[in-house]
Specification:
Elements (H helix, E strand, L loop, with lengths): L1 H25 L14 H10 L5 H22 L1 E11 L7 E10 L2 E10 L5 E9 L2 E8 L4 E11 L4 E7 L4 E8 L3 H9 L1
Antiparallel strand pairs: 1-2, 1-8, 2-3, 3-4, 4-5, 5-6, 6-7, 7-8
């Protein structure tokens, strides 16, 4: 009988612990009324466990320092290569238009942001997508705000600084050739890491 009561008591205690933890973190602790404006209750509990309570100035300084370090890290990891080129439809040897933009390396993926237009300046729009391991996937928007998915294969000639691409949309296909800026060497070094 004593074992059964002990087991039931332990089970009840284990079931009630998460509920009390949730209730304690959402309620304000007595004696912490001065921190009520600056910190939520779970932050006060965390600081008390660490051994001291941080004041508002120290908390703000920590946030500013963290934000500054994050922006510096983003700037260091962000390499850009500019491109400018021509594009056309499959089966045509004539140029259908021009495109230009920036390829930005972020982490393991290269992001493409650019603009395009037709040779007669009748249509224009934006180009956004990602490039990785010879594959391109993105979206093309036109002047009347319609979005089309575009997918393709690309190859970079590092010696001539040329980007060649074959692309398709749901209803059309084509080619593109672009000249890359001279910052390509730094971009490639980042890719090897």
């Amino acid at each position: 009988m004593k074992k059964t009561m002990g087991i039931l008591f332990a089970a009840e205690l284990m079931l009630m612990m998460p509920i009390t933890a949730i209730a304690a973190s959402s309620e304000w602790l007595p004696g912490e009324s001065r921190c009520k404006e600056c910190c939520p209750a779970d932050e006060v509990v965390r600081q008390k466990i660490c051994g001291r309570t941080l004041n508002t100035v120290e908390t703000q300084y920590g946030e500013q320092l963290r934000n500054r370090l994050l922006t510096q890290q983003e700037m260091e990891n962000k390499l850009e290569v500019r491109f400018r080129g021509i594009w056309g439809f499959t089966g045509d040897n004539e140029t259908s238009g021009y495109f230009a933009g920036v390829i930005t390396k972020r982490g393991r993926v290269a992001w493409v942001h650019g603009v395009w237009n037709t040779s007669d300046n009748e249509n224009h729009g934006r180009l956004v997508g990602i490039m990785k391991h010879g594959y391109f996937n993105g979206r093309v928007s036109t002047g009347d705000e319609t979005m089309r998915h575009v997918t393709g294969l690309y190859k970079i000639n590092r010696e001539k600084h040329v980007l060649r691409m074959r692309w398709i949309t749901p209803h059309q296909g084509g080619w593109a050739v672009a000249k890359l800026s001279r910052q390509l060497q730094q971009f490639e070094d980042m890719d090897k890491q």
